[in-house]
Amino acid sequence: MTHIFFCTKKCLKQCDHNHICDRGCHFPFGCRCNVKINKTLPRCGHIILIGCSEKVDQFTTCNEQVDFILEICGHHKKISCSEKHKIETVEPRNRELYEKHSKCSEIVSVDLPQCGHTKLAECWKSLRIKKTDTDMLKYIPNRYDLKCSKEVVFNLECGHPITTMCYKKCFYEKNPALTQKEGKAGIECESMVELNLVCGHTTTVKCFERFRYQNMRSLLPSSLSLFRRYTNIKCTAMVDIALTCGHMGRTECWEKEQQMESSHYKLNVDCKALVEIRIGQCGHTKMVECYQRHTQLECHEKSVYTYPKCGHERFFECCQHPDMQKLHFNQTALRRGGMGRRYNYREEIDCKLPLCEHLIDKQLSCGHKIAVTCSMSENAV
Known about the structure:
The protein is α+β, with helices and mostly antiparallel strands. 22% of the residues lie in helices and 25% in strands. The longest helix has 13 residues, at 207-219.
């Protein structure tokens, strides 16, 4: 049986620059030193940082940035030494192509082909425009980001003048099918105009909103419910509507239409009709708006109660002393006892009433008089 043995020792050989190889033994292959050192390029004389074992010759890439004058425009540009060498040594007929590829970034005034205005942009874009076929000029603004941002005034199809950027005007005029109706021209007329809604009412909206509304109406002529669903213009005219209580209420037109189209739509309208309701057990009535008729209200009617023992009067509101109000109306206070028999519990009510607070003079045993509340005398309730 043949055994295979591997050397586990370090190489430790030295290269021509006395760098020690710290890799494992790689016999019979030679050493490859990866220590970075400075080497001079023979073609241009620039120094580059490169691996010790790597060879340099006239084809080695030099990334040193050097100044170069482009013949096609005369501008100076910083390019790599290798790129400069490539342009200078290429055939004369191909030099312009190589210089275009380097893209001169000098800012110059560019004549825009669509409108004739000028715009500051990179030099290479100006060169592309000059060399572009007439049929392809329409693609220049979007392809090279050369949209004219100069503000111009022109009349829209609606007749209103508008101030907008020139590139939007050009797009608008060259694409008559893409009008405000489609919203693709990027121009929205903000003038306020009147719009006749499908419900018959008239409202004031922005001009571009009227275009969209009318366009949607033409697309959906037979389905009003579908049309209303896809438009964001709501009629806010106030109209009459029959409420669940039987009265007539007022609501915005669009809400009424919504309720008529969908039985699940809950109309949030408070009935303002005045109705008479009875408040609590006191028997008083009050005129309230219909939507409040089921609300628990307090009676603030003013009443007067005469204490039976002292004869003093006490003014109160029903909501303050409801038991006192029962006595005021001389209502029979009946309650069933433990054996099921009814009995009058007016005495129990008397115990709940506030004591008489009328001030009276009280004769003291010393002969002097002091003012005390009636409830402290013998005649109090």
